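FORM 7B: Structural annotation worksheet

SECTION A. Query
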Amino acid sequence: MARLSRRDLLQAMAASGGLAAAAGLGAFSRSAQGADGPRFLITFGCFGGASMLDCYMPVSSSEALTVEGRGTVISYDTVQPEGSNIRSVNRSIPTQFLDLYRDQMVVLGYQASSVNHFTAQARSVNGRGIYAGRTLGEAVAAVHGASMAMPNVNMGRGGYSEPGLDPTLDVRFRPEIVTNPVTFPLSASGWRGVIEQSEGEGLAIQDPEMMALLVAHSRELREGTLEQLSPFAKTFGGARRRQELLYARGESGARMEVDDLIQQLFFVPDLGEVLPLSRYGLTPSEEVDRVLSYLPDAFPTDVSGTPRDRLQAQAALAYMLIKSGASASVTLTDPGTDGFLAFDQSHQSHRSAQEAHWDRVLNVAARLIELLKTAEYQDSGQSLWDRSLVLFATEFGRDKWDTGGSFGTGHHLNNGLLMVSPLIKGNQSLGRPDPNNGFISGFDPDTGEAYAFDDIAPGQDPLFTDERLPPGEEPVFGTVLAALGISYDGQETLPVVLG
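SECTION B. Predicted structure
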């Protein structure tokens, strides 16, 4: 048979009412939202309480108060680069990260409103519902991802992966949940990679173009006839969950196939028996070598498809999604070294847990940032990183006192927050840790001047009604979106961060 061109294939499928028609190709515009193109949000969900006292707002060991019966305020040997007011624990990865990105870093005091994992995680990314219940990812997707196949991809867990509560939000901006970033590209096509390729003539359906036409015809029959006859559809025709399913099965899935994301998102090469792509007629992305040079542990080592390092694999997929123009918001979560405990291992051994997981997320974030710097955004002269913001979202802080030995800490509302981006006014540490009680203070939102707990006796904690405590979820949420060019009614921001 004569070989069909890609144009012939798409026209045939559209004529059959299948894939392209279901996708509504005319509705998918390559033009970006906004005059100068999209912005990208990358959220690291730091599960379990990434304490800023243990990274970029530490108390110096020479200043920390010791109180009989309570211990010593958690403190470290610290360093502070010349020309910066950001202080770091004196450890290689945090100091290297600070040296690289201090001009694009903002560290600020942050007051959580819950110490429940799920609730606090959700609030850290939805601003306690301040924007009609939308999450950061949903808000970014709705503005910057309208023309994208999967505008909001979430590899998080718990509250970080929870959708928002805005009933008016278009279903396509809800999070696309990804559990394994290595094998996820296989879900970007309903037919490619399904049948093992054989030598010789083989079956007609092994021809990818013929297979696509057959699948398109089957989908037309399903959607145009069988779905309409279904008793379930007649009973629950307007149900939101059904509409979400139809969107994922129709428009979203079709767009992924038209954009050939099954190939564009594969960031690992053919690995033989571990991941035999060629056996199923698949090829990896041309970005493979570049990705693995920055994230070498992102690929699997056995037939389970589990990556050697799950966080590196999440970062690799995040890059591929942004580079391919498929997503505007991507959420990652540090899987930890024991299930998903991550920073919550501080319950058993505070210092070692905070050190291990801060080093881990900063290391992977730096690799991802450098990878984004290597890719240009649509011949604009700007890199993808020039248009991105990384938010290290943490649900709460930890207790403030070192009680000796391999001490553990509980959950605590008071903490700090880190964001990195060329889109904010960097090289700022806003608020300060009090060496007398370990609390991080707030700051003037316009000038950045830190507040001081100067009338509180040493060893005493400020009340949780104290107005000098740092800002909560709402202004941080509003500031992140403002930096990405997004506004909404009642938006609270921290002008000092935006410049």
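SECTION C. Observations
The CA atoms of residues 423 and 483 lie 6 Å apart. The first strand starts at residue 40 and ends at 46.

SECTION D. Sign-off
Analyst initials: ____
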